[in-house]
């Protein structure tokens, strides 16, 4: 029966003259990084066959394959992890892995053997990233200050000093006058450290699959700390969205309207083509009347698949949005199925949404009093309105393209006024005041422009008391 990969090496004991030896085979890496079988021989201290077998068994049980010991983390990343693992990810994920590897993982562990990186080493790296002493001025900056002062004391001019150390004359003057302060290196956020841990964990997980690493994943029990989840400072309201849409020109007006009424993000909206829309009242293929299908994203000049499978969805279009998109189509020169709805100067590329935000959306938003506005706020507005209107959970998940309702709730504005009505009812039950509670105030906040956006309906306290008594009698 063939021996499984990374199983304890097989061997046999034999005697040469008066000395017992163990001959065994094990997996090792050659110079090309390929795992190969090597035969080894070990001298034993036993004097008889039984003792030699026992000693050989103890040695083979404690033996760890040196396939990982002869390769560094950098070599494994370059030979296996980059070409086999990273390149199979989406473009955005590839950029994320490359950034974390270049800035955190490889500088710390690149030259270390992959089997020498244990839990303590990873925990040390995590602690270094989170320590507050990183805010101290780097030693290199202090040395440069001393070097400039020494050159100035020697009689050199600012131009000569700048040429010697490779900085501008203005910076030399600031250092000499004491007005220059090197940029402080702040500690990394917990989220950044989590990314570092996750990339390292992926490396070791893949190394085990390749047979290069045999031990447990050293990142599995690393302690990081609690994520500092800050609450949002701003939530886009219907009044603010309406004011912004009124002052926007085409196509920014239609883009914001589309995102607010369909929950599309900017990558999905800019990748929208005429072939993925049905602006008619009849079925077109698999598309229902007045609807569109989210198929792809436009990310950094590349047309790629959507973020997750749940994001591929069919969204209904309001009549007003259909009319607005039809006007764009009527005014466009490129209306083939593969042409973009929000086309840019070139036919094969959509409008540069980053430029549109900085040159059109941001100035207009600042003018109406919402300088913090971004296109993703439109998506949050849709989820908040759907929650306030009482959409079914399945409809909210389908519209937002989320896989869990917990993520959808994170996009929804806090429904404080709606909960306030329920708390008032509970308070009335406790105090014995039988009165009808007015919860109309719950719609006077962020969503007061639509009378349909109401919170919990008015319920007489007497009815609530009957309901509670009936439930108590039942169980």
How would you describe the overall organization of this protein?
It is a single chain. With 475 residues, the chain is mostly helical. The protein contains 18 helices and eight strands. It has helices at residues 49-62, 73-85, 91-109, 119-130, 139-153, 158-165, 169-177, 190-210, 238-247, 252-262, 266-270, 319-331, 353-367, 376-389, 393-400, 405-410, 416-431, 461-474; strands spanning 11-16, 19-29, 35-43, 277-278, 291-294, 296-299, 302-305, 313-316. The chain has a three-stranded antiparallel beta sheet, with helices on one face. It has a three-stranded antiparallel beta sheet with strand order 4-5-8, with no helix packed on it. It has a two-stranded antiparallel sheet with strand order 6-7. Strand 2 (19-29) and strand 3 (35-43) form a beta hairpin. The protein is extended.
List the helices and strands and how they pair.
Layout: E1 11-16, E2 19-29, E3 35-43, H1 49-62, H2 73-85, H3 91-109, H4 119-130, H5 139-153, H6 158-165, H7 169-177, H8 190-210, H9 238-247, H10 252-262, H11 266-270, E4 277-278, E5 291-294, E6 296-299, E7 302-305, E8 313-316, H12 319-331, H13 353-367, H14 376-389, H15 393-400, H16 405-410, H17 416-431, H18 461-474
Antiparallel strand pairs: 1-2, 2-3, 4-5, 5-8, 6-7
Helix pairs in contact: 3-8, 4-8, 6-7, 9-10, 10-14
Identify the notable features of this structure and list them briefly.
single chain; 475 residues; mainly alpha; 3-stranded antiparallel sheet; 8 strands; 9% strand
Structural class: mainly alpha
Query: Radius of gyration, rounded?
Result: 33 Å
Total helix count? 18
Helices and strands, in order, run as EEEHHHHHHHHHHHEEEEEHHHHHHH
Strand line-up across the major sheet: 1-2-3
